[in-house]
Amino acid sequence: MSTSATRRELARTRLIESRLTPNAISLTGLALNILAAVLVFADFYFLGGIAFIVGSIMDTLDGRYSRMSGKGTPFGAFLDSTLDRASEGIVLTAVAYQFSVEGKDIGVALTLLAVLSSVMVSYTRARAEALGIKGDVGIAPRAIRVVILSVGLLFAKGMGLGDFELLEPAVYVLAALSVVTVFQRIFYVRSQLRDA
């Protein structure tokens, strides 16, 4: 085993033996997404985008750490899924507020659609899996939605690279792809139940 592989294994062992829990990682992710929302409310889109990205990374690490460490619990899995939905909704609420302040009524409406359809993407997966059917089909799982919203937040004011704003188009794409994903999952489950 190479020296770097030995170091990684040692670090992994120390992390697993630490007091760190998957729930602590989940709650840290939520706290960072609340911070992202506060920053967006305060018109600091770029910093909000950074906080959203780091919080979203934490949201993906908690499940992996749970499996790797063996510290996962049924409640932890439930908490993880619940906080993931809340985190996305909290940040999009701040975005809707900013659109409202700017008088962008269509932006507000499509942000609400993005929130609803994002929740429905997760709900359709959960219901499919409760029926014993793979539920993660579709073009906009959570990772894709996080990337779209992250790009929108980071480039909400062009980030000094030009006179363009990507937040509103990002929300429109997010809403559209989430709606398509919901229907993809509905039709997939229907076809699987028909074939059963």
What is the straight-line distance between the termini? Answer: 48 Å
Domains, number: 1
Q: pLDDT under 50 segments (min length 5)?
A: none
CATH topology (fold) name: Four Helix Bundle (Hemerythrin (Met), subunit A)
Mass-distribution shape: globular
The level of helicity is: over 70%
- Named at the architecture level, the CATH assignment is Up-down Bundle
Number of helices: 7
The mean pLDDT is: 88
Describe the protein's architecture and organization:
This protein has 196 residues and is mainly alpha-helical. Helix content is 80%, strand content 0%. The model has no long low-confidence stretch (mean pLDDT 88).
Question: What would you say about this model in short?
Answer:
The protein is mainly α. It contains 7 helices and no strands.
Key terms:
globular; 7 helices; Four Helix Bundle (Hemerythrin (Met), subunit A); 196 residues; mainly alpha
